[in-house]
Amino acid sequence: MxxxxxxxxxxxxxxxxxxxxxxxxxxxxxxxxxxxYAALNExxxxxxxxxxxxxxxRWERELGIVTDLTKPIEQRRAVVESKLRxxxxxxxxxxxxxxxxxxxGTVDVTFQPQEWSFTVKFVDTIGIPPNLEDLKAVxxxxxxxxxxxxxxxxxxxxxDIHEVMTLAEMEQTLLQKFAGGVRLDGQRA
Length: 189
Fold this sequence. Notes:
The protein has helices spanning 3-10, 20-45, 56-63, 73-85, 92-103, 132-142, 158-161, 167-172; strands at residues 107-112, 117-126, 148-154. The protein is α+β, with helices and mostly antiparallel strands. The protein has a 3-stranded mixed β-sheet, with helices on one face. The relative contact order is 0.08.
C-alpha cells in the first residue's frame, strides 16, 4: 500500500482493517494524492530560478531573454539569474554579482578609469567558462556604452601540474584549460 494510502487508511474505523475493498480504495486514493503532491511541488519549483525546469521559459520571456533549448538548463538558469541581479546602477559589485551568477566561482572586477575600461577576472575557473558569450551579452547590456570591458582567465601552467597531477589526470583534463591550449572553436586560448 502507498504511504499516503496507509495514512488515509489509518483515519478509518478499525472494523475496516480487514476490508480488502477499503484497503484497495485507500491505496488507489493515496496513489492519486501522491501524484497530486508531486505535481504541486513541481509547480512550486517553477517559482524559483534555481529549481525551475519547464517554467524557465516563462522567466526568460518575462525578462526578454531569447529561449535557447539547446543550452543546458544550468546555463539558462544562470542567464535568468544574472538578468535578475543586473538591475540597478552600474557598479563593480553589480558586475561581480552578474558574472558570478554565470560562472559559479569567484570573480574579481577592477576598474581602470584612466583607460575608460574595467576587467572581469575569473579567479576560481580554469580556462574559459562555457557560457562566456551569454555573460558578455549581459555585461554589454548593463555597462555604460563608453566603458570597454576585458576578460581575464586562469589557465593551468607547468608549475600547477608538475608533480601534482598524474599522467592519467592530465589526459582527462581538457586542452583548453592549459596555457597555450586550443579552445573548442579552434582559436588559441
